[in-house]
Write a structure and sequence with these properties.
Distance between the termini: 28 Å
Largest sheet: 6 strands, mixed
Number of strands: 21
CATH architecture of the largest domain: 3-Layer(aba) Sandwich
CATH topology of the largest domain: Rossmann fold
Number of helices: 23
Shape: globular
Strand content: 15-25%
């Protein structure tokens, strides 16, 4: 480790107290450096310790529960951060070291305008008065590409989209022209086009301001687009470190190889995606090199769901008596083949989730029909629809929010079976629940545990098992793998494919991740501003996109390190 580096981390250990006697080690004596004027990517899955390491640099670990190892040292620009007083650390962080957090909506104060929040940083660290700070805030908003900065400076966070909020966070982070910018998963929740804009913006700002950037992510495809150096972490340890070219061309650690190959690519569709355990057990390359899976429709398939001219409008009050109409879905038509997958792609606000919720009658359709075996499920009474409700199910994006925390997994699985009179009695239903847990790759002991005792990927498996209790024919997967780590995502995609083959399920797979959609979909429907702009078999659409919007989406897909 050289002393020319801007940031040097030596033997960093972090433990968290779980109670008075016990603690858990989150970071286990790691060392790495961030050179001046370069970008280092810190890569790993949830629980690897990457965010904890960055919070240790910023001095944001909870003082009551976090314990740093006695040999831990963090040196920034020649100064030992752990030896500074709280006041000295506070002056340094925000001015010379700043941080962009993963979720901008929880990082921005909802009761202050974005201009006030950027100005507060400038007044605190740069000694500007309110007028100077406002003018500089407008300049910063312009620099990060926010449209109409003179108007948006007076906007509240809730009036901005997710991508715009993230731009405000970046403007705040670079306000004092820091030497080091820490970006903690800054694009995870964003659409592929907005993600590319933010990545390009951070890269351009890094060059313009000669900053160093510590970029934290779980997606190695992004790393190839922005980083000079890569540090790979797992379970609190550094597994591998090197230049981005070394890591991509000749990864030494099996875990790094797994991260590179678990994610679906645009040029390959293996029968099953390799997962972390394949590589750690030495079967990785064999798993990655399986025969290719063919996808697509030939027109002879049996149609299970025929959607015609679907429309959904939302209305808001305007004045005393007026109503303002917002058309979220406009004249959408498609046919879903039995045992096949329709991928629905588009940016946030394109109407793709509204289509799924309207088909399940969680929103009431404004216009159109949805013919399930020739009967319009949108025109049925609630009593009539009850018989169809169990045949069309949905897996939501967030398994944390869709599972009742007060119910055990057994209660979660039994409840829908009781409602729909599936099984003769609870003993029979419990037996079915045990079989379903095994089917989705969970131990039978999970039956008696609560949702909070499981990881995100395991909770998503529980949500899938709950859907399967009703033996559905159509499953709407609403961004159901987008919040998962790449290896867990691979496990869930493999599971969905296995279930489709076994039960002949039809999927409406809603996602903004185009690489995942290419992998799992037979046919792809592209939505923009509530309307369908293009529909084709997945291979054809990715090979020969017709619409300009589709071409924009495809060009924004992160492709890792390019030659």
């Amino acid at each position: 480790m050289t002393h020319t580096a801007l940031l040097e981390i030596h033997d960093l250990s972090v433990r968290f107290r779980t109670d008075k006697k016990n603690s858990v080690e989150a970071v286990k004596g790691i060392s790495f450096s961030v050179p001046r004027n370069s970008t280092v990517a810190l890569v790993g899955e949830s629980g690897s310790g990457k965010s904890v390491s960055s919070l240790a640099v910023m001095g944001l670990l909870p003082p009551d529960s976090a314990l740093l190892g006695e040999h831990s040292r963090i040196v920034f620009d020649g100064r030992s951060l752990l030896e500074l007083t709280i006041e000295e650390r506070r002056k340094l962080c925000g001015k010379e070291i700043s941080m962009i957090f993963q979720e901008p909506m929880t990082s921005l104060n909802p009761v202050f305008t974005v201009g006030y929040q950027i100005g507060e940083v400038l007044q605190l660290h740069m000694g500007m008065d309110a007028k100077q700070a406002r003018e500089r805030a407008i300049e910063l908003l312009e620099e990060v590409g926010l449209p109409e900065p003179k108007v948006r400076v007076d906007a509240y966070p809730s009036q901005l989209s997710g991508g715009q909020q993230q731009r405000v966070m970046i403007a705040m982070a670079i306000a004092c022209e820091p030497k080091l910018l820490i970006a903690d998963e800054p694009t995870t929740a964003l659409d592929v086009t907005i993600q590319k804009q933010i990545i390009d913006l951070i890269g351009a700002l890094q060059k313009k301001h000669q900053m160093s950037v510590l970029f934290i992510t779980h997606d190695l495809a992004l790393v190839g687009e922005i980083a000079d150096h890569v540090v790979v972490m797992r379970n609190g340890d550094v597994k591998e470190a090197g230049t981005v070219r070394q890591i991509f061309d000749a990864p030494a650690d099996p875990y790094t190889k797994a991260l590179l190959l678990c994610r679906p690519t645009l040029d390959s569709r293996p029968m099953r995606l390799p997962v972390i355990d394949d590589f750690l057990s030495g079967k990785g390359l064999a798993a990655a090199a399986t025969t290719q899976r063919s996808r697509g429709l030939d027109g002879s398939e049996d149609i299970v769901l025929d959607v015609r001219n679907l429309g959904k409008s939302f209305f808001s009050r305007e004045g005393f008596f007026g109503k303002k109409e917002f058309k979220a879905v406009k004249d959408v038509s498609f046919k879903l083949a039995r045992g096949k997958t329709l991928g629905v792609v588009g940016e946030s606000g394109s109407g793709k989730t509204t289509v799924g919720l309207t088909l399940l009658r969680l929103h009431q359709a404004t216009t159109g029909q949805a013919l399930f075996e020739g009967k319009d499920i949108l025109a049925m009474s609630n009593q009539e629809f009850m018989a169809y409700k169990r045949r069309i199910q949905i897996i939501f994006q967030n398994p944390y929010a869709s599972l009742n925390p007060r119910f055990t997994v057994g209660q979660i699985l039994l409840e829908p079976m009781r409602i729909h009179s599936i099984g003769a009695n609870d003993a029979e239903r419990a037996e079915m629940a045990y079989q379903l847990l095994q089917k989705v790759g969970l131990p039978t002991s999970a039956y008696h545990r609560y949702p909070h005792e499981f990881s995100g990927g395991q909770r998503q498996r529980i949500a899938i098992a709950r859907c399967l209790t009703m033996k559905p024919e159509v499953l709407v997967c609403d961004e159901s793998v987008s919040a998962l780590d790449v290896s867990v995502q691979a496990q869930v995609l493999n599971l969905l494919q296995d279930l489709q083959e076994e039960f002949g399920l039809s999927y409406i797979f809603i996602s903004h991740d185009l690489a995942v959609v290419k992998y799992i979909a037979d046919q792809v429907m592209v939505m923009h501003n509530g309307a369908v702009v293009e529909m084709a078999n997945s291979d054809e659409l990715y090979r020969n996109p017709q619409h300009a919007y589709t071409k924009t989406l495809l060009s924004a897909i992160p492709r890792g390190l390019q030659d």
